[in-house]
Fold:
Amino acid sequence: MNALQVSTVSFAYGARQALQQVSFGVAPGSFAALLGPNGAGKSTLIALLTRLYDLQQGDIRILGHSLGQQPRQALCQLGVVFQQSTLDLDLSVEQNLRYHAALHGMGPRAALARIDEELARQHLGERRHDKVRALNGGHRRRVEIARALLHRPRVLLLDEASAGLDPASRLALNRHVRQLCRDEGLTVLWTTHLLDEVQASDELLILGRGRLVAQGSAAQFGDDLGASFQRLTAEQA
Structure:
């Protein structure tokens, strides 16, 4: 069973078709990169995966639970880091995490234990009482990852998580998430438009004009991934 299964998903904004019969699976413990140019449908797919939008057609399953029929069971297995930060800048790191833990029904003692664990894993223990406003972009992203993992999900979704970071911070974040994937057995779906964030061993999913135009190991696309990406997405123009 795939950790994440998207089956014949279509979505339209009125007359405009944003996604057309998109199907793919991501195996447990793997790192999958979702690529696509602007307008390819990535944002719509993320909104459906996180249930910001209701499905119009098709099915999405997380650890076997259907988002449409079993939303609570499905979403409790999903951790999300959105492209736009949703941290409260005027609260401390710990206060942001406590608030999220409360939303997931954790009691104060259990929440504190999980916060201690995740801050240690993100190397942020010394910053727990700092206001988020005082953190740099890379550290804010790590707080968001800690928050996403508080409820122990098995699937981690990162939507353009490196947006706005400098190259060194982007690389560090990418490496950090991959290490989590290896150490914790997390299934990761990493959406990006930056080809240098993709490694040869990744499962690669390419969206173009609302369709899944290619899927497979990144190594299968050859040494010039950029050329393959341009050709595949241009064919959908």
